[in-house]
Amino acid sequence: MKARLRKLGDIRRQELRRAAFEVLQREGMAGATLEKVAAHAGASKGIVLHYFRNKQELFEHAMREANLGLRRAVVERLRTAGTPYQRVLAVVEANFDERFYEPSVAHAWLALCAEVPREPQLARIQAVIHARMHSNLVSALKAMLPREEADRTALLVSGLIDGLWLRLGLQSGGIPRDEAIALVRGLIDRQLPAASRDRA
After folding, report:
1. Domain 54-198 - what CATH class?
2. How far apart are alpha carbons 177 and 182 in whole angstroms?
3. 142-196 tens-digit pLDDT
4. Cβ-based burial of 171 (10 A; exposed 0-12, middle 13-18, buried ≥19)
5. Which contiguous run of DSSP H or E holds residue 7?
6. How far apart are CA 17 and CA 200, in angstroms?
7. pTM higher than 0.90 for the full model?
8. Is there a contact between 101 and 177 (Cβ–Cβ < 8 Å)?
9. Residue among 120, 112, 28 at smallest CA distance from 65
10. Domain boundaries in the chain?
């Protein structure tokens, strides 16, 4: 019975995290209240506060939930990548996955990132996200470049990805997914020896 209640509680927490991120997409941080999250999830504010101490903790978990989807997309693509070059492209394409690369999702990420300077826990989550992307990129790039160049190229790639997501959130329509991937791939190709690309 206790195990069943814990499982139901985990499901409810996940529903509330997803509802919080969806409300954030629509309302931004200032407009995303606990009442709106509760209504979106078909619950009461009291239920939300039963699982999360306050708004800050709820949106911290919403950020984790959104990042979990991105992490799964990266893992899915890496499984089918056979060469270092393909692994680099797998990381890039996952970061522009059709399920996530939408203006509304970019709006939610921007709202959360705007709180990073004031919310240490959000800052830690964002640092983990950046570190994971850097590690995934360097792991593949160092098979094709000296380590220092691999680190520098990974920073260039992740910086361009962040910039394209920022553009998506700030500019109506943003840059289409295929064009965004082509821009990042062009940067990667300019950094790599031709032989590394040809082997792919």
Report:
1. mainly alpha
2. 9
3. 999 999 999 999 999 999 999 999 999 998 778 999 999 999 999 999 999 865 6
4. exposed
5. helix 2-31
6. 40
7. no
8. yes
9. 112
10. 54-198
